[in-house]
Amino acid sequence: MGIGIEKPLGVGGISSNITVDRNRYQKSFGNNLQTDTFERTGINRYTTESAIINMVKANPKIITILKEVNAPLSINMKELNHVLANHASDTKNIAKGITEHLPFSLQNKVDTKALLDAAYLHDVGKVLIPANILNKAGRLDERETEIMHKHSELGYELLKSTDIDKKTLHLIRNHHQNAKKTGYPFVDNSFNADLNLQILSLADKYSALTEKRAYKEPLGAKQALTIIYKDVQEGKLHPFVFKALVNYASEKATAAV
After folding, report:
1. Which of the chain's termini has less CB crowding within 10 Å, N or C?
2. Does the pLDDT of residue 21 top 60, yes or no?
3. HSE (CB half, 13 Å, CA atoms) of 160?
4. Are the beta carbons of 113 and 171 closer than 8 angstroms?
5. pTM for the model
C-alpha cells in the first residue's frame, strides 16, 4: 500500500538542580553534582546534565543570547530527555530512511555520521528554552516565538565547546534553514543548503508533523507529505530528497499493513 501525493493543500516546550537569577543571570550550579558514568564515548555524552552545565560555563555567548530575548537561564533535563527519546530519535531514523531511498549517486554525497549525529542532537538547545513555551498548548506569541527560534543557535553554541566536528555543528545550527534562506537563524548569501542539511530539515519537519505535541494532534503520513510538498513547489527542498521521503514513508506504511 503506497502513499500517493495528491494535489497539494494550501496549508500554509525545565527544572533541575540549577538555579539562575533571572535579572542578573547569576549561575549557581551547586557542589554535589555527580559525574555521569554512562556513555562516556558515545554521542549521549553530550546530553548529560554535567555536560550541559560545563557547556554553559564554557561559552559566555549562551548567556548573551538569552539576555537578548529576556529569557531566564534554566536547564530542564526532563524536557531534554523526552526530546531525545522521542522526536530526536525519530528524526534520526527518518534521516537514515531518506538517505537509503535516495538515488545511489546522491547517497554517496551524504556524510552519514555528521547527518545522523546532527539529527540526534539538533534540538539539544531546547534544554535552555522555558518549559512553559515548549509545552504551550496554543499558538506562541511574538516574544515566545523569538525565544523558541533561539533553540538551534543555542544548541550550536552549547556544542561548540566540545569536540564535535564543524560539519555536524553547521547542521545543528541551521536545521531550520532551507534552500531559499527563509528560515532561521539568519544566514548570508554565501549559505548553501546542501544535501545533508536538506535531509535533516526534512526529517525534522516530517517527524514534527507526524507526532503529537502539546498544541496539536499527530498528522497522518499523507497529510504531512502534502504539506511538505509546498516546500518543493517554493524551491526550498529538492524534489529528489522529497521523493526519497515519500518512498520511505510508503515502505513504512506497507510494512505496517
Report:
1. C
2. no
3. 17
4. no
5. 0.85
